[in-house]
Amino acid sequence: MAGIYIHIPFCKHKCNYCNFFSVASVKYRDVFVAALLREMEMRKDYLKDAVVNTIYFGGGTPSLLTVDEINTILAKADELFNLNPDLEITLEANPDDLNLEKVKSLKNETPINRFSIGVQSFFDEDLQYLDRQHTAAQARQAIENVQKAGFENMTIDLIYGIPGLTPEKWHKNLDIFFSYHIPHLSSYSLTVEPKTTLQHQIKNRRRAEVDEALSIRHFEILMEEIKQNGFVHYEISNFAKEGFYSKHNSIYWLGDYYLGLGPSAHSFNGVSRQWNVALLKKYIDSDAVEKMVAEKEMLTTEQLFNEYVMTSLRTSWGCDSEHINNVFGAEYANYFTKSIKPFLNEGKVNRHGNRYVLTNHGKLFADGIAMELMRVG
Ligand code: SF4
Fold first, then answer.
1. Which residue among 144, 262, 340, 348 is the one 20 to 30 A from 5 at the CA level?
2. What is the CATH number of the domain that holds 73?
3. What H or E segment, with its residue span, contains residue 273?
4. Best substitution site from 6, 8, 10, 11 to test ligand 1's pocket, by max atoms within 8 Å of Cβ?
């Protein structure tokens, strides 16, 4: 099982909290698409003959692509890769791009079958805090348009921990989400990334500071509400109705292979990880794979083990000690079962046979627990 990630590096505007690679312009879209097709040709053997189960257009803002551009890219993928006929094809979209006409043409003229809409909040004041370009009304309209056009499989993003987002307002955000019967939610705590405009604005007192205690309260509310509404908390930031787990993100979490295309995109083939240059001009001008790659690292057993622990612990499948024994050897399995014991005793982890799964209480400390379980040196 494998996946293809395609990074579309254009946005209409840079949101203050964002640290993804993108440029606030659509000026070089046509030359970018030509470079992307070239990269696909050059890297057509990266996944060997693995069956590709998912293609994910991420960004940036993939909803800025035209129907023709999407179809050109997908036709090239079909020509070069071993695509599963039952392919999940996701398009990330901003609400202000999703008018009914556009969504209908995406439905009728492309094979896109899943939407990921960057809603972030159903309150205008939160969207203003985040410097988003759309309004709450546009977010609701976008969801309704996608549903009206006949897309059943969709997800939205909601951000919690925004200053001013009281627990009552967070409940309201979730109530609105549930009212649309959307089968998947990705929800993240607002993080102030280094060198972002938001960090600068907080420093200059133009934005209120993020309060960690508020984020934790929001996460607790999220876990309660999501359960009451029949969703599975299958990854720390992802929630779905049965049958609607993200096939694409599951590839990352289960350690399967993926090819990342476009500037800044990451790829993994089981032994090495590499990422492309995060520079649009350099990417467009590259006529050889080596020029597109910013860095490549061969992964040691220890790195692969650490990565497995870090990602699997965040999922509802948990960390499997038998898998560790089979893949990394008995020494790693012994190390793991010994180091996870204190967290079992503290009620942060539950054991189900060979699988070790975070409890709701443990999910509040997921990153810290994973750090303690990693092997260094
Ligand atoms: S639209 Fe998305 S990718 Fe673009 S700047 Fe905003 S958060 Fe970042």
1. 144
2. 3.20.20.70
3. strand 272-276
4. 11
